[in-house]
């Protein structure tokens, strides 16, 4: 069967890419993968190329994009280091795929139980965090203001912030932690990366500093991860659309 991954309308930058290629926009979902790539570059010097698209023009709904990700959403990775090139969609799956380049296990876990914790928190945010905070943003920005919808997603987002606070504060374990997964105080991992890009936008989502006082460990976790050089690079100028 011939490889249908690329069509006539596939941008040259995507079709001709060598090695890893990231198609993104610097949104919370895009930033997850941007951060892990920058972290991997800092540790291992891995290389990739990037195509920045503008989702407000619906580029992600075009045929060339849907060939790579039928869900029509960014980010997507294409691994051209394998034959045929292998596309990866869905941010958490992308983070887990990229761990194959993390030879020393800096951002994931080899221990069975630590790995399970990492997956639990990664999936928790993917399934029970991002959809709420994403919909909160959607309804807050919508021209038609629907108070019921805004209130519903505002409450649910605050609730999942509370879940993260329980985890980080050690409320039920007696052991506060610095990161979501791993023994003891935990280790910075893809679970944190997958969650942080959303939670760090709490002000833009409409939560005041006063309201966030309910989640002191979470706010501290947000500030601490924000200091990482790879994180600063990944959410900065390098990924801004022209
Ligand atoms: N579940 C998907 C969500 C991806 C997603 O929603 N991406 C947004 C940007 S943050 C997007 O592409 N929106 C454009 C659209 O919905 O057409 C993932 O984790 O990869």
Structure description:
The chain has eleven helices and four strands, in the order H-E-H-E-H-E-E-H-H-H-H-H-H-H-H. It has 242 residues and is α+β, with helices and mostly antiparallel strands. The chain has two domains: 94 residues, Glutaredoxin (3-Layer(aba) Sandwich), CATH 3.40.30; 117 residues, Glutathione S-transferase Yfyf (Class Pi), Chain A, domain 2, CATH 1.20.1050. It has a four-stranded mixed sheet. Strand 1, helix 2 and strand 2 form a beta-alpha-beta unit. Helix 2 runs parallel beside helix 4 and helix 7 packs across helix 10. It starts with 11 loop residues before the first helix and ends in an 8-residue tail after the last helix. The structure holds glutathione (GSH).
In terms of quaternary structure, the protein is single chain
Give the end-to-end Cα distance, rounded to a whole number of Å.
Answer: 38 Å
Bound molecules: glutathione
Shape: globular
Which segments are poorly predicted (pLDDT under 50) over 5 or more consecutive residues? none
CATH topology of the largest domain: Glutathione S-transferase Yfyf (Class Pi), Chain A, domain 2
The CATH architecture of the largest domain can be named as Up-down Bundle
Helical fraction? 40-55%
| Widest sheet, order of strands | 2-1-3-4
Radius of gyration: 18 Å
Number of helices: 11
Strand content: 5-15%
InterPro entries: Glutathione-S-Trfase_C-like (IPR010987), Glutathione-S-Trfase_C_sf (IPR036282), Glutathione_S-Trfase (IPR040079), Glutathione_S-Trfase_N (IPR004045), GST_C (IPR004046), Thioredoxin-like_sf (IPR036249)
Domain GST C-terminal: 111-242
Domain GST N-terminal: 17-106
Family: Belongs to the GST superfamily.
């Amino acid at each position: 069967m011939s490889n249908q991954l690329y069509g006539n309308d596939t941008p040259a930058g995507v079709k001709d890419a060598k090695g890893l290629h990231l198609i993104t926009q610097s949104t919370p979902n895009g930033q997850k993968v941007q951060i892990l790539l920058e972290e991997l570059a800092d540790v291992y010097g891995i290389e990739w190329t990037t195509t920045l698209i503008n989702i407000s023009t619906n580029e992600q709904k075009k045929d060339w994009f849907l060939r790579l990700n039928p869900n029509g959403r960014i980010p997507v990775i294409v691994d051209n280091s394998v034959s045929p090139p292998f596309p990866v969609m869905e941010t958490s799956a992308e983070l887990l795929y990229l761990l194959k380049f993390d030879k020393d296990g800096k951002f994931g876990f080899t221990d069975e139980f630590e790995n399970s914790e990492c997956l639990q928190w990664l999936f928790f945010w993917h399934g029970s965090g991002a959809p709420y905070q994403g919909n909160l943003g959607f309804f807050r920005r919508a021209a038609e203001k629907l108070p019921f919808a805004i209130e519903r997603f505002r409450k649910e987002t605050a609730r999942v912030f509370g879940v993260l606070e329980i985890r980080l504060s050690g409320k039920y374990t007696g052991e506060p932690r610095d990161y979501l997964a791993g023994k003891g105080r935990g280790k910075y991992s893809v679970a944190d990366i997958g969650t942080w890009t959303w939670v760090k936008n709490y002000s833009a989502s409409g939560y005041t500093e006063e309201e966030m006082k309910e989640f002191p460990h979470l706010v501290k976790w947000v500030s601490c991860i924000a200091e990482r050089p790879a994180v600063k690079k990944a959410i900065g100028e390098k990924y801004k659309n022209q």
